[in-house]
Design a protein that fits this description.
binds zinc ion; Jann2411-like fold; mainly alpha; 55% helix; 179 residues; ABATE; metal-binding; 9% strand; globular; two-stranded antiparallel sheet
């Protein structure tokens, strides 16, 4: 498989990156904050998320970050571990406005498991395509945000144009002061 990836796959990866980024930034803590980010991104089945669901979700983010940062073989091993521990049962569903797509767990499964299994399913395709390197962190070390690089030649280095221009300005100043 090569670009463009299916929209659901990109959305799953961008969603989980945003959850990790906001959690690190201290913006995700309460059950309400989990419900809000899931509603914002259209992650289904989460409107009743409790404090326990939120805490379980935050506890799963460590393995998500390891998926994000891992090399291909490590990611494959971790994906299998996530599926095993959450007892994933992939099945095709069609609901609301969404045509046939995969759900990893039955409806009513724990929300934290649904979130981490959804992320793991997205990584399946990246492993098969040997494309896990598209899961990156911002090249500005003060930022370090996770982002999914959709550029054709996998050349994107920054999470945003803000970080890119801040780094360019810093490099320009460094060059200017060394002459
Ligand atoms: Zn669905
Ligand atoms: Zn950044």
């Amino acid at each position: 498989m090569s670009l463009p990836y299916p929209r659901e796959l990109v959305r799953s990866l961008e969603f989980i990156a945003e959850v990790c980024n906001r959690r690190r930034a201290g913006e995700l803590e309460s059950a309400a904050s989990l419900r809000a980010i899931c509603a914002e991104w259209g992650f289904p089945g989460t409107s009743g998320a409790t404090r326990a669901d939120a805490d379980a979700t935050w506890a799963h983010l460590d393995i998500v970050e390891r998926l994000w940062d891992g090399d291909r073989d490590a990611v494959a091993t971790l994906v299998n571990r996530v599926f095993r521990e959450a007892e994933a049962r992939p099945h095709l569903v069609r609901h609301d406005d969404h045509d046939w797509h995969l759900h990893g767990l039955p409806a009513g499964a724990p929300i934290a498991d649904a979130i981490v299994v959804d992320a793991a399913m997205a990584f399946v395709d990246l492993v098969r395509a040997d494309d896990t390197a598209r899961c990156k962190r911002c090249g500005d070390s003060r930022c370090d945000r996770m982002f999914f690089d959709q550029s054709r030649n996998r050349s994107r280095r920054f999470c945003s144009t803000t970080c890119q221009s801040r780094t360019n300005v810093a490099a320009f100043r460094a060059r200017a002061s060394s002459v």
